[in-house]
Amino acid sequence: MPTKTETGAAARFIDIHVVQSVPFANLNRDDNNSVKTVRYGDTDRTRVSSQSWKRAVRQYFQHSIGEHALRTRRVGARLAHLLENERDWPAGLAQRAGQHAAAGSSIKFELGKNEPVVLTNAMVYVPETAVAELADLAAEFRAELENAKDIKKSTDKSVLPQDRIDTILRSRNGVINLFGRMLAEVDDAGVDGAVQVAHAMTTHGTDVELDYFSAVDDVTSTWGDTTGSAHMGHAEFSAGVFYRYATLDLADLLSNLGGDHAAAKELAQAFIEAFILSLPQAKKTATAPHTIPDLVHLSVRSNRPLSYAAAFEKPVRSHHDGGYAAASRTALDAYATAANKLLGQCGIVTAGWASLEEKDLTGLGTRTESFPELIDLAVNAALDTTRTAEDHA
Predict the structure, then answer these.
(1) Minimal CA–CA distance to 129: which of 168, 90, 73, 157?
(2) pTM score
(3) Mind telling me which NCBIfam families this protein's record contains (predicted)?
(4) Which of 63, 130, 174, 283 could pair with 126 as two cysteines, CB 3.0-4.6 Å apart?
């Protein structure tokens, strides 16, 4: 039987391991528009940053659960837009309300350079519904705003109550409870994230390729009166099989949710699905790299998360028939088997996998037929075990 952790829960982490083949693409560019890379095991690999993939996961997750969060320094401008376009406020008064809302919190502010807005020095991260709450506050103090002056310098004071604005900025929803929030400027607004996401990297060495392209001028092409293209250029791309990893800390999630198991189950299922199926959107119109994972392995653990990235420290070699996907699946299975043997199965509550792979991968636990079935297996085992442990604590 699994042992209880210091939180009183027998299941604490859900580890998500993904092997995914991505064709000719550039999912995540650096400041020079180049493919991001990492040297690991003395071999150059293609890399996608955790921030890039996490944004794709968050966007998928928000759409899935029907809740959205807003991360911006321009919360005042967003408020002004809502007041003018949805509540029929005069443009000037709506603009002033946005200025006073942005200037009225505990966060320091500065004046925008290109438009008459006030920017918070730190990005706020709030539920989308917080903008409507700020609009309600502005409506309550409309008379004061009508008699107030515009915010024109950093020493100007807002006529809106700071404590009321800060309370709105502390609000949270499922997105923030899962991904966390750093907002040190507002007391008690910080939220510890319940997910950790690793940078994705290929399981094998890769080369960056330059793609030369030209754009034809339609008039020139039709008339045929001159030669040459309207535009020429080049872009970097690569292809490969990626290992992706994330872990969900159920103790942190339940803490953020006040112990609500039903909400934790909904958010956990939605996050795992989002991590499995999301894809960064860079260069999508030119590459359409919309693959699905070759393999997903979920492991529920009681003591600590465990990445299998070390399975690919030695880059896999292509299969005798070509390709890296099959060899990557085999390497993941072999590493999981060896790691769990070394740890003595310590901390494993349950494990399972779903894959295009035809052969059995015994080191990955119970085989399931689909990703939804796999997600249900892991989440139900994790949260049912957590509830049982708490009931008997």
Answers:
(1) 168
(2) 0.88
(3) casC_Cse4 (TIGR01869)
(4) 130
